[in-house]
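Materials and Methods. Structural model of Sulfur carrier protein ThiS. The 66-residue sequence of Sulfur carrier protein ThiS from Bacteroides gallinaceum was retrieved and submitted for structure prediction as follows.
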Amino acid sequence: MKVLVNNKETELAEGSTVADLARQLELPAQGVAIALHNRMVPRTQWEEQTLQPGDSLVIIKAACGG
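The predicted structure was written out as tokens:
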């Protein structure tokens, strides 16, 4: 199935979760937030939040600096 990640089409297996997406994209274990349809998904729900074809996700990475 195809989903949009930061406005880029990404292919995932049917029934994938937010956690599956994070693993596929090799996201770091810390400093990352994921929003599904502009709503933040708590990390505790990543394993159970199933994605659907056409879902829109935004990945936000924390940055240091000033």
